[in-house]
Amino acid sequence: MPLLPENNFVPDLESLDPTLLTKAKILAVNYPNNPTGKIASQDECDLLLEICVRHNILLINDAAYSGLLTATQPTGNFFRGAGAAAHCIEVHSLSKSLQIPGWRLGFILAASEIIEPLRVLGLLQESGQPKLLLDAVAGVINDQEISEALSECVAERRRALIDILAASGFSIQNVDGAFFVYVQCPLGVVDGAEFENAAKFSHYLAAEHGILTIPYEVSGQSYVRFSVAFKGEATVVFAQLRQKLSAVRFCFPKSVTL
Fold first, then answer.
1. What are 15-72's pLDDT values in tens digits?
2. CB 9 within 8 Å of CB 37
3. Alpha-carbon span 60 to 30, nearest angstrom
4. Peptide bond before 32: cis, by omega within 30 degrees of 0?
5. Nearest to residue 48, comparing CAs of 26, 69, 74?
6. Which structural domains are found in the chain, ordered by start?
7. Taking Cα atoms as reference points, which of 154, 161, 140, 143 lies closest to residue 69?
């Protein structure tokens, strides 16, 4: 289902045909969300879970980016709602939260009656990772200072990126989630290029300014995702980005508040 600003980037399950909900077996969501950065509130989590419980749907939340949130960032928890034990699974990625891509490490949160068949399935289909990696990650998880330092680094970079994008007229959709920033595309450049879709704008940024983004088309609306996951000194990278974007005057849709 499309995640739209008018629905606060939460799937509008109530708008679905009731017969579809009756037939559904699984609802897969992703909060904190990629690419929007949306963090679901407790009320939003409770509503999604309540609908799943009512229709006997298993709710699976891909929580890969939850470990990147700082201690002060409020976030909902699907497991706080009534019926969560029988209807909820949450998947976590240590590759994301500890910034170790390629290690392919994570864990699942669920009630024991849900975990057990998943464990058996894993024994049949997975080979697992070397114990050396598992021990290393276990040590890091137990060191709260490391996780907090990584989260604060991501938050600081995200704030810097938001300031730069806002100064160039971009409307920031969400400001809290994960290591990226999701913005609506401009219509074009003043007295210059026009962007008929997100791919055109993303290509323009890469070809003309050396800025890499990921384009998204959602229900006729065009967005790109900027990331703060990069190598190099952050102050240097952001200074270069600010210089490149400030040299361009973009035209934005009238619906965007500047």
1. 888 889 999 999 999 999 999 999 999 999 999 999 999 999 999 999 999 988 887 8
2. no
3. 8
4. yes
5. 26
6. 5-143 (3.40.640.10), 146-251 (3.90.1150.10)
7. 154
